[in-house]
Amino acid sequence: MFARSGFVGLALLCAAALPAGAQDAETGFVLPMYVTGGALYSHRMQGDNPAAGPWAGAFHAAFTPSIRLSDHWFAYASLHLTSTPFYYYDAFQADRKIEFHAIQAFLGYTTTYKSMRIAVKAGQLATAFGSFPLHYDDADNPLLDQPLSYVTYLKPTQSAAGSNSYGYTPVTLYGLPGIEVDLSVHNADARVQLTNSSPANPHNLLSGNQSPQWAAGGGYTVLPGLRIGSSVFRGPYLDRDDVGWLPRGTSRRNFPATGAGVDVQWARGRWSTSGEWQWFRFDYPGFQVSSHSSIGYAELKAILTPRWYAAVRIGDQRNGRVLETGETTGESYQPNVQSYEFAIGFRPRRWELWKVGYEWLRTNEAPGTRDNVLGVQLVTTLPSLSKAWR
Question: Nearest to residue 355, comparing CAs of 301, 305, 302, 308?
């Protein structure tokens, strides 16, 4: 209840301050939009429903309105409408549905103190953990899928993960209600975020499973085109439905999820590359050694001609051994995973991008090519709507 009332109170306070900040400054509105149509071929869906066919088509529409309210105040949103299965990992479930996600929808305030730029944001925010969440849009992502830590499921135990039978995606791409402070000075940047739930188990402001969480990150631009960063998060992740079987004298706060990671981005000429390595631990009742995983990926893109590019992403997920209290040996709680994705992009016009890709997925449970995916996407950038008021 404290977290819910605190976030709502902050949002109302910020809204009340708007008129004073918007009186004497340039104001305006812009709405970039893109629509992606996609199709994929894979036998992944048959693991969920043996009668499912290998072909599937879907769409993804993104709208990113921003409003400049004054020299200091602004608002931004990233709104997404998607049918499934659109991304490769969606194909592990045969259900066809349409989903709406407000990945970001926040009010912000910016100012400068000496050489430091400060930004404060409140609302629905992309998680401060990791570097990929702000760069996964179809028009920005050179490949068709997403790195493993943002799509795979991890289970704290070999059986169902409490009330979450599929397990937990380590880092959500769909945003969290919260507050964030961003700082940048010279070549350094930092961010600190307080949210209402874990990036591994996100909830909205009406949920009864909220628990205050923190995440932080930062980076340093070593030289033009080369940035090195790191980030961490920690906090409770279990739902209230799990509280009934927690050990006496403990609460959800005694069993947090923890993440730590490093990332790098480099670009020069027609070459660009990025990568992340992340470590996660899900503390769980009854375990002397809780589940932990390390997940990393490296991505390389080469511009072949002004219209053509090629990109590759290699991912690796290593799951550690767990040990229940009272046992003498431990076992890995789920198979390791390796992914290899390749894509070619072609831009016949500046507002149109074709992508064709293929992903090889390797696990001990699925040998051969059953879980491989062939995909194609057409990303169309629509004319932006804009309006200047002063």
Answer: 308
Q: Which of 65, 42, 63 is nearest to 54 (CA)?
A: 42
Chain-centroid distance, C-alpha 172: 4
Q: What is the pLDDT of residues 195-217, one digit of tens each?
A: 999 999 999 999 989 999 999 99
DSSP string of 167-234?
-B-SS-SS-EEEEEEEEEETTEEEEEEEESSBTTB---TT-S----EEEEEEEEEEETTEEEEEEEEE
- The answer to whether residues 104 and 124 touch, using CB atoms and an 8 Å cutoff, is yes
Identify any residues that bridge with 175 across adjacent strands, giving them in sequence order. none
pLDDT value of residue 51: 86
Asked if the model's pLDDT at residue 368 lies above 80, the reply is: no
Check: CB of residue 80 under 8 Å from CB of residue 60: yes
CATH class of the region 2-19+30-388: mainly beta
Specify burial of residue 302 (Cβ count, 10 A radius: 0-12, 13-18, 19+).
middle
What distance in Å separates the CA atoms of residue 1 and residue 19, rounded to the nearest whole number? 29
